[in-house]
Amino acid sequence: MVDLDLPDKSFDVLFCIASFHHIPGRKLRYRAIHKMHRVLKSDGILVLTVWNLFQWKYLPALLRSIFSFILHFGLKYAWNDLWIKWGSHPVKRYYHAFLPGELRRYFKKNNWKTEESYFVRKGSRVKFWRSFNLCLIVRKQ
């Protein structure tokens, strides 16, 4: 996502499903957003989902992250940067646990208009605390 080598204005719609939360750091996230904006046609749509990591099963990882943030004075990772084991793989993967407002703010600064923002659990819209995913649909301005 941060190195999209595609022609400018080449897509009407982009789908970014369960991947944006793997980009570490604000600088790289803004770079990915800029690249997506560049390859979308005028008035194009971006459909983006990220995992909602504020669930009971991720609480230990979230607490470890908060403790690490305090221990390293916030210099190493953000408080909501988590390392989580994925399936049976022995290596943990990086995830950023987005809060809904934080995710929307990334798209307020880059010529986007939010069309919809909602939470999903198994295909149904639910409240944030019951959701598995955060969904954001934005239009290129």
What does the model show?
The protein has a domain at 11-56 and 97-140: Vaccinia Virus protein VP39 (Rossmann fold), CATH 3.40.50.150. Helix content is 26%, strand content 35%. It is built from three helices and seven strands; from the N terminus they run βαβαββαβββ. The chain has helices at 26-39, 59-71, 100-108, and strands at residues 11-17, 40-51, 81-85, 92-96, 112-121, 124-126, 133-140. Strands 1-2-7-5-6 form a five-stranded mixed β-sheet. It has a two-stranded antiparallel ribbon with strand order 3-4. A hairpin with a 2-residue loop joins strand 5 (112-121) and strand 6. The longest helix has 14 residues, at 26-39. It is globular and about 45 Å long. The mean pLDDT is 94.
Please give a quick description of this structure.
The chain has 141 residues and is an alpha+beta fold. Helix content is 26%, strand content 35%.
CATH topology of one domain: Rossmann fold
Q: Got a strand count?
A: 7
Widest β-sheet, arrangement of strands: 1-2-7-5-6
Roughly how many Å is the radius of gyration? Answer: 16 Å
Helix content: 25-40%
Q: Name the shape in a single word.
A: globular
User: What is the terminal separation in angstroms?
Assistant: 20 Å
Q: Describe the largest sheet.
A: 5 strands, mixed
Low-confidence stretches: none
Q: Based on the coordinates given, report the CATH architecture of one domain.
A: 3-Layer(aba) Sandwich
- The CATH class designation of one domain is Alpha Beta
Secondary-structure element series: EHEHEEHEEE
Mean pLDDT: 94
